Amino acid sequence: MSLDTLKNALPDYAKDIKLNLGTLSTEPSLTTQQRAGTFVAAALASRNADVTAAIVAEFAPQLSPEALHAAKAAASIMGMNNVYYRFVHMVGGDYANMPAKLRMNVIGRPGVEKADFELWSLAVSAINGCAMCVESHERAVRAEGLTQEQVQSAVRIAATVHAVAATLDGEAALQPLAQAAE
């Protein structure tokens, strides 16, 4: 499945999402690696097989094997960290002072520039709704020299990819109802 196939799978009511997907696929504020890695990490975080297949088919060729591995690793590690740190943030108390005791070695050695890995982690954290992780990764990318525009672009990609997945999941859930009505 290609990006065009994915856009064509979106219903008419999601025209804005389709247009955003097309525009963001060439977002100029990000490097090719930052943009492609953000798309891949966001697609994996979306948890939709069709979206992931189409996005990876489109953007993986724009990444080195190391960068593709790192984008996947960002989605994976944030899948764990976003749950844990969202809990810590919501509950408060002494949990924030306790060691997580979770392996996170890839964060220290992602195999790509720190700024890019942190940007992908930020995008996934935005999808997963972890305020503590979003704040931490936003500070990290800004400290690495990324601009607010670049941060916003990555989060716009994450939001749009998530919306594509949500729309397609919703349409799939409605198909049995439409068939029963026929």
Automatic annotation (TrEMBL):
Entry EC no(s): 1.11.1.28
The processes (GO biological process) annotated in the record are:
cell redox homeostasis; response to oxidative stress
Q: Does the keyword Disulfide bond apply?
A: yes
Q: Which UniProt keywords apply?
A: Antioxidant, Disulfide bond, Oxidoreductase, Peroxidase, Redox-active center
Q: Where is the Carboxymuconolactone decarboxylase-like domain?
A: 94-174
Q: Which reaction does it catalyse?
A: N(6)-[(R)-dihydrolipoyl]-L-lysyl-[lipoyl-carrier protein] + a hydroperoxide = N(6)-[(R)-lipoyl]-L-lysyl-[lipoyl-carrier protein] + an alcohol + H2O
Q: Which Pfam families match?
A: CMD
Question: Where would one find the signal peptide in this protein?
Answer: none
- Active site (record annotation): 130, 133
Highest taxon above the source species: Bacteria
List cystine links: 130-133
Q: Name one GO molecular function term.
A: peroxiredoxin activity
Role noted for this protein: Antioxidant protein with alkyl hydroperoxidase activity. Required for the reduction of the AhpC active site cysteine residues and for the regeneration of the AhpC enzyme activity.
Q: Which family does it belong to?
A: Belongs to the AhpD family.
Record NCBIfam families? ahpD, ahpD_dom
The protein's name is: Alkyl hydroperoxide reductase AhpD
Q: What is the lineage of its organism?
A: Bacteria, Pseudomonadati, Pseudomonadota, Alphaproteobacteria, Hyphomicrobiales
Gene field: ahpD
